Amino acid sequence: MISRRFRQAAMVKAPRAILIAAIALTIAVPALPALASAGPGLKKVHDPGRVTGTLHGRCNYRDHGQLPDPRCTPGSIDPDVTQADIRSTICKRGWTATVRPPEAHTERFKYDVAYPHYGTPAGERTELDHLVPLELGGSNDATNLWPEYPPTPNPKDKVEDALNHAVCNGRVSLARAQAAIASDWMTAEKRLGISGGSASGGGSGSGGGSGAWCTATASVYYAPDDENNVYVHSNQPYTDATASADGYSWSYETNSSGYAVIYLNGPPAGAPVTVKVGSATCTATWT
Q1: C-alpha span between 175 and 254 (Å, rounded)
Q2: According to the per-residue pLDDT averaged within each range, which of 16-20, 49-53, 194-198, 214-218 is highest?
Q3: Domains of the chain
Q4: Which residues are CB-contacts of 10 (< 8 A; sequence separation ≥ 6)?
Q5: I need a surface site. Which of 21, 43, 75, 183 has the fewest CB within 10 A?
Q6: Does the pLDDT of residue 14 top 90, yes or no?
Q7: Per-residue burial over 111-144, b = 16 or more CB atoms within 10 Å of its CB, e = otherwise
Q8: Is 148 helix (H, G, I), strand (E, B) or coil?
């Protein structure tokens, strides 16, 4: 049985202990006024003209460097860019230049922060990309930046332009476009219903009776070793995609988004490339 004296002491000391713990927690966790939760959606970070935040732990590429680690780079947006003000922000010519950080800042983040956390060798050629692009109200925070392994020209650029036009034309809301491209830029257009899919850019496709389709782009990724890549986008996940050109042929299985990168060494620039994904056939030309 607990004595009356002990109970009184506990009643006096407990609130004091809680108060001390609360003060210690307040001191240990500094306020971050620029970062606020967007509920279940993307984080909101207002940081025009400067790179903010950092990365923590090991980050892993997805889809051969075409997609970032969703834990490290889930995407984030500028809360000052809203549906109500798109005419004075993302739909205004030249606006992104007013919020883009200087190249010296992005290069420092790329090599000193992003490369070590993503395990990217210092000599690798990548593009520090805004997952949610500035033209869709993306932030410059670490949660929205990652070293992407794109072909040249980067097919993601066409997706970004298509989504910007769709938002500015009123076909898609800003929030839906931001969420779609942050989730998977390669499927964003299809999910939003604004295109047959231009993520691979520059190719042509034809589907069979089943409604299968594919598009393809072929480019020399690393010239000294004559490493040629074929970037395939389709509506057929987990299906063998086979690229053939100039007597060479190689296959690779598409991922859950119907995307594949096929490494095809040998064909010269200008050679036509034929890609078959299930019952769909598409073509491209080495660039």
Answers
A1: 29
A2: 49-53
A3: 43-192 (no CATH), 204-285 (2.60.40.350)
A4: none
A5: 21
A6: no
A7: eebbbebbebeeeeebebbbbbbbbbbbbbbbbb
A8: strand
Q: What are the backbone dihedrals phi and psi of residue 116, each rounded to the nearest 5 degrees, phi first?
A: -60, -40
Spatial neighbors of 206 by CB under 8 A, at least 6 apart, are 213, 280, 281, 282
Segments in 48-154 forming alpha helices (H): 103-109, 115-118
The pLDDT assigned to 139 comes to 98
The secondary structure element, H or E, covering residue 215 is strand 214-222
Long-range Cβ contacts of 242-248 (<8 Å, 24+ apart) = 242/275, 242/276, 242/277, 243/216, 243/218, 243/273, 243/274, 243/275, 244/273, 244/274, 244/275, 244/276, 245/218, 245/271, 245/272, 245/273, 245/274, 245/286, 246/271
Q: How far apart are CA 276 and CA 239, in angstroms?
A: 10
Percent of the chain with pLDDT over 90: 44
Rounded to an integer, the average pLDDT of 188-196 is 81
pTM over 0.70: no
Inform me whether the pLDDT recorded for 90 exceeds 90: yes
Q: Chain centroid to CA 17: how far? A: 46
pLDDT in tens, 20-30: 333 333 333 33
Query: From CA 243, how far away is CA 261, in angstroms rounded?
Result: 10
State the amino acid at position 170 in one-letter form.
Answer: G
**Omega before 267 within 30 of 0, i.e. cis:** no
Report the DSSP beta bridge partners of residue 217. 231
The two most distant CA atoms of the chain are separated, in Å, by 93
- For residue 200, how many C-alpha atoms fall within 13 Å in the half-sphere facing its CB? 30
User: What angle, 0 to 180 degrees and rounded to 10, lies between the N-to-C axes of helices 155-168 and 174-183?
Assistant: 160
